[in-house]
Amino acid sequence: MQAQNRDKKVAYKSMRALLIEDDPIAVGLTQEILAEVQAARVDLESCDRLATGLERLGAGGVDVVLLDLSLVDSQGLDTFAKVHAHAPDVPIVVLTGSDNEQLAVQAVEQGAQDHLTKDQMGSDLLVRALRYAIERHRLQAEIRNLALTDELTGLHNQRGFLALAEQQLKLAQRMKTRQLLLVVGLNDPKEINGISGRQQGNQALFDVANILRRTCRRSDIIARLGADEYAVLAMDGHDGTEAITTRLQANIKVFHEKVNRRYTLSLSVGVAIYDPQRPRSIDDLLAEAGESMAACLGKFHSPGFE
């Protein structure tokens, strides 16, 4: 009896769910189902078009999406792909009719957290699916953060970069060799997303990664540190800042000449030197290079490079 009383007193954290569904009867039924479980504390919003759903997601504050794959303005897996690309950090639970369950399974294989058929959607099942989707998505994000590779670009992520860079600086100290650290930022990423869309914005990040691969040597450590920021630790600092930045500028020029994109890549670069006579930590070097990059913004510009 005491265990049962404890269960009744469980207080769930409130969550905001976005239902993208064009059938008003299904919307009303979902509202009724969630209202039956007051302890679930689900704040439900609904949009009847994919376009308005994407607009609402762009405003932020959504914890989980309930998505009907068959909408007036979008059909099938393409519906899921557009929502997932627009808001990759928001878990998605797919809703389908009983005759489209295989389609829902395919959506799960492509990244949806769960799927429900509308005719089997009870209150406990729906609430549990929403909460499990949020928790699984959180755990998956933690696992990705523990990995050393950036999922989008295939470069090292920040964790991987810091681990490798620390080892490289120890080696440089023993060998008495200089190291060159570059911090590279993509200029105006919001403008690229605004003009070309989020998918093209991701493509721009991938393009920058490829340009850095072509610019640097295999022995260099290249990483994506954050949303639009990269770092390169050149194993032999004697290569020189001018040599690397000249190659980088040349590769950007070649990219624009050979690749047709809806956007123009423009980069800012900051530099810091590791001198074994005056050793510093990788954090200090990143801070100096970051300040150098910020200082150069808007002061000089050449095609694709600042």
What is the number of E strands?
A: 11
The largest sheet has its strands arranged as 2-1-3-6-7
- The name of the CATH architecture of the largest domain is 3-Layer(aba) Sandwich
In sequence order, what are the helices and strands, one letter per element?
Answer: HEHEHEEEHEHEHHEHHEEHEH
Largest sheet, strands/sense/barrel: 5 strands, parallel
Structural class: alpha/beta
**Separation of termini?**
69 Å
Strand % is 15-25%
What does this structure look like?
This protein has helices at 2-8, 24-35, 50-58, 77-86, 101-109, 123-146, 158-175, 189-196, 198-215, 241-258, 282-296; strands at 15-20, 42-47, 64-68, 70-71, 74-75, 92-96, 114-117, 179-186, 221-224, 229-234, 267-274. The protein is α/β, with parallel strands linked by helices and 306 residues long. Strands 2-1-3-6-7 form a five-stranded parallel beta sheet, sandwiched between helices. It has a four-stranded antiparallel beta sheet with strand order 9-10-8-11, with helices on both faces. It has a two-stranded antiparallel sheet with strand order 4-5. The termini are far apart. It folds into two domains: 2-146, 3-Layer(aba) Sandwich (Rossmann fold); 158-296, 2-Layer Sandwich (Alpha-Beta Plaits).
